[in-house]
Fold this sequence. Notes:
Helix content is about 20%, strand content about 30%. With about 130 residues, the chain is an alpha+beta fold.
Amino acid sequence: MARKILLNYSVEKVKEPILSEVIRETGLALNILYAEFGAKGGEILISVEAPDPDVERAVELFRKKGLEVKEIKRAIRLDRESCIDCGACLSLCPSGALYQDKDNTVLLDEDKCVYCELCVPACPVRALELSKF
C-alpha cells in the first residue's frame, strides 16, 4: 500500500533541491500528488510505495534537510450516511478512486485518490469532504 507524505517547505528551503536529493539518495520512486508554493513557502504531497524501512529512511532524510514531514492517513472522506449513491462524482474522478460496487454503492479507494478535489463540489448532498492538510 502506498503511503502519502506531506512535505512542508519554509521560504528558505523552497530554493533547495531537497526532493531530488532524497530521490537520488534513496533510489525511491516518489509520485507527486499535489504541490503548492507561494510567498510563505510551500507543500508537496507525495505517494511512496516501498517497504516501510525505506519510506522511514526517506522521511528521516527530509527531516534532516529541514522539512516538516507529516504522514497523511486520510484526506478525502466519503460520508456513507449522507451519500445517496447517485454517482455524480464518478465520471469526474481521474484516478478511479471513486467507483460503484455490484450493488451500485459508491465507494472510495483512498490508495488511488490523488486529491484533485473534483468530486467534492460535484456531490449534490455534500457527502464528500476534503480533510485539510
